[in-house]
Amino acid sequence: MEPRIITRPEQPYVGVRAVVTLETIGRVADRIGELIGWLTARGAAPAGAPFLRYWVIDMPGRLDVEAGVPVAGPIDGEGDVVAGTLPAGRYVTVTHHGHPTGLIDATAALLAWADEQGLTWDAHDDPEGTAWGCRLEVFMTNPMEQPDMSQWDTDIVFRLAD
Predict the structure, then answer these.
(1) CA–CA distances in Å: residue 34 to residues 48, 97, 125, 158
(2) Number of domains in the chain
(3) Please, which residues bridge with residue 85 across strands?
(4) DSSP designation for 25
């Protein structure tokens, strides 16, 4: 694991939100193709890799998540597709190579590493769980080009407090 601290500019995106559990999170991730189709129907294209954004996490219970696709500039949402902007700032990131089921362990290792470094997250406790300013899993591998999930690369990206 080679974590690094990066600076990201703000990034407009479109997404769909849902409240799920670890067992049902796939139903949100499965909507990424739908989002890309939604953009294509409007003459737009993704401006980067799709992601899952975690808003609130209560691990034994619920996850408030959003499947998103970056866009080149602001675009209006429609229906259950919302438009937003990922915040600019300093982030901690690491690339996980392997099946997405390994993301929980990779995330735990990244959190432990960051705590050892004395880094502070853009997060706070909420009655619903831990609310994150920006916590992402960015899917760097296109499943159409690499169907073997054990060969996927996923960037884990967490915003640091200002």
Answers:
(1) 16, 25, 32, 25
(2) 1
(3) 12
(4) T
| pLDDT tens per residue, range 42-97 | 999 999 999 999 999 997 789 999 999 999 998 999 999 999 999 999 999 999 99
Q: How far apart are CA 133 and CA 31, in angstroms?
A: 22
CA gap 151, 84 in Å, rounded: 30
**Are 17 and 65 contacting, i.e. CB atoms less than 8 angstroms apart?**
yes
Torsions phi, psi for 56 (to 5 deg): -135, 135
How far is Cα 54 from Cα 158, in angstroms, rounded to an integer? 10
Question: What is the Cα–Cα distance from 146 to 160, expressed in whole angstroms?
Answer: 32
Comparing CA positions, the residue from 155, 1, 3, 11 lying closest to residue 89 is 11
CA–CA separation, 92 vs 84, rounded Å? 21
Other C-beta atoms within 10 Å of 112: how many?
A: 11
Domain that holds residue 108: 4-159
Question: Under 8 Å CB-to-CB from 75, ≥6 apart: which residues?
Answer: 12, 14, 39, 42, 44, 83
DSSP string, 118-157: T--BSEEEETTEEEEEEEEEEE-S-TTT---GGG-EEEEE
pTM of the model: 0.93
- 36: domain CATH number? 3.20.80.10
